[in-house]
Amino acid sequence: MRGAWTSARVRAAEEPVLAATPEGALMRRAAFGVAVQAAELLAEHTGAVSGRRVALLVGVGNNGGDALWAGVFLRRRGVAVTAVLLDAERTHPAGLGALRRAGGRTATGTVAAAALEHADVVLDGIVGLAARGPLRAKAAELVEHVSAPILAVDMPSGVDPDTGVTSGPHIRAERTVTFGARKPVHLLNPAVCGSVHLVDLGLELDSPDVYALDAVDVGLHWPVPGLADDKYTQGVAGIAAGSSTYPGAAVLAAGAAVLATAGMVRYVGPAAEAVRAQWPEVVATGSVADAGRVQSWVAGPGIGTGSEGRDTLERVLADGVPVCVDADGINLLARSPTLFDARDPATPLVLTPHDREFARLVGDPGSDRVGAARRAAVDLRSVVLLKGNTTIVAAPDGRVLANVARGSWLATAGSGDVLSGLVGALLASGMDPWLAAGCSAWLHSLAGELAARGAPTSASGILAAIPEALRGIRVQQAHREY
Ligand SMILES: NC(=O)C1=CN([C@@H]2O[C@H](COP(=O)(O)OP(=O)(O)OC[C@H]3O[C@@H](n4cnc5c(N)ncnc54)[C@H](O)[C@@H]3O)[C@@H](O)[C@H]2O)[C@@H](O)CC1
Ligand SMILES: [K+]
Q1: Cα(367)–Cα(371) distance, rounded to whole angstroms?
Q2: Average pLDDT over residues 352-361
Q3: What's the burial of 306, exposed, middle or buried (CB within 10 Å: 0-12/13-18/19+)?
Q4: For residue 303, with 0-12 CB atoms within 10 Å meaning exposed, 13-18 middle and 19 or more buried, which class applies?
Q5: Which of 60, 108, 154, 208 is deepest in the core (most CB within 10 A)?
Q6: Per residue in 2-58, pLDDT tens?
Q7: Is 94 in the pocket of ligand 1 (CB under 6 A)?
Q8: In the CATH scheme, what architecture does the domain 215-481 have?
């Protein structure tokens, strides 16, 4: 799992390393990493390094210092380097002196605009860890002149390092070179960072503030039947979804649970016939009381907010097994918070709201979605999966992971029903509920991408792509094992 740490924690971790290394050594190491990536970008975009033009956007802090030192290293490879200084008086003195000695130029006014317009690659050293708010007017005006690919030093300027939120002019980088550790912006807003490269500074950091899963993580955790397993030992997922008005939600949620693991799926509700017709392997009954034993429940998709749905949700919450509550189930909880009392506090609850459902439950998530999801998880003693282009999964113990969608194909009717079925299947296998929700979100977005292949898809398409998505991560895992 990749991790990211807030700017305050990274700064604190840098202190002992700075104290133990010669003055400027850390900055030069960071800058060397920037120069290597800048040379790579030049070669990719122009076919050469020597003789090409790089412009540096240099702010008043150490971020600007990094950019200046990167310019020094690029000069040694024959690159023409021009530094555009946002405030000449307050520029990093050692970096500026070194760049001048190495034959780099500085530019202001119309010369600066021209240098930015004619550059092959631009380095963004405007602001780093100390960033607050969007780009200020002078920096924003200079950035207007850039059309070349931008390499961000540490992080794209004008973006909040800890939330990834943009609230005005900001840099959109093709590549980012960060130092010591990833910051939350790199996991939460990859659209502004481009590809992220990490330069190791030997920082000591544990328990990240935000995690992100990759294919190998999901492949390692996804349950696979062992030699001694039968249909019961892998966990039976119960699906309480759908209604006579919305049988589709039941078919999609049950189908996702069928395809996610090799165990067994039970269904309860008024859409039993439709579910059986599509998924003959599902054991379908009318009510929770007749369902037989399950190791998890999914409750909510398409059940409506009437008394029948409410009764179902209450029974499911009291069943003493992990529960994933989605859609109408969340609306019911928002309307009648006393329903939470039906829950056995020792059994995990996973809530999977989109923004409007989240707002009904605990209030508007606002722009700091990580903070909002984390608070909701603690307050509701539940894993909260806040859906969005970047989906946030927060656990009541404070763990947070972010899953960035691959395109927006998942924003289609019924897509959430598929996600809840995946969560239900993983909960039934006994997986940690935070990880179950995270792995489900990850696989759901991969299935969405595979189903779409560049053209709009549907929830049925996402469902049908689950096996292909799972085969893909099994292959990745095999590569890791052997
Ligand atoms: N501390 C260290 O050990 C290391 C720090 N490094 C670099 O140092 C950076 C942090 O440096 P600093 O603490 O000097 O601060 P920054 O360089 O991040 O910021 C400098 C100043 O920019 C201004 N600023 C804030 N928001 C702005 C905005 N939206 N638009 C324009 N200007 C804005 C503020 O006056 C701020 O003090 C890191 O991001 C990294 O690039 C690296 O050299 C590696 C080593
Ligand atoms: K920057």
Answers
A1: 9
A2: 97
A3: exposed
A4: buried
A5: 154
A6: 999 999 999 999 999 999 999 999 999 999 999 999 999 999 999 999 999 999 999
A7: no
A8: 3-Layer(aba) Sandwich (3.40)
Q: Is 331 annotated as a binding residue?
A: no
Q: Do residues 404 and 213 lie in contact, with contact meaning Cβ atoms separated by under 8 Å? A: no
At 240 the three-state DSSP class reads strand
Sign (positive or negative) of CA dihedral 237, 238, 242, 244: positive
What span, in angstroms and rounded, lies between the C-alpha atoms of 419 and 351?
A: 11
Please name the residue that has the structure tokens 């009954």.
Answer: 285
Domain spans in the chain, listed from the N-terminal domain onward: 2-209, 215-481
Q: What confidence score (pLDDT) does residue 167 get?
A: 94
ipTM score for this prediction: 0.96
Contact 95 CB / ligand 1 (< 6 Å): no
Best of 6, 26, 57, 63 to mutate for ligand 1, by most ligand atoms within 8 A of CB? 63
Cα–Cα distance for residue pair 280/335, rounded to 1 Å: 35
Domain 2-209 bears CATH identifier 1.10.357.10: no
Contact 412/457 with Cβ under 8 angstroms? yes
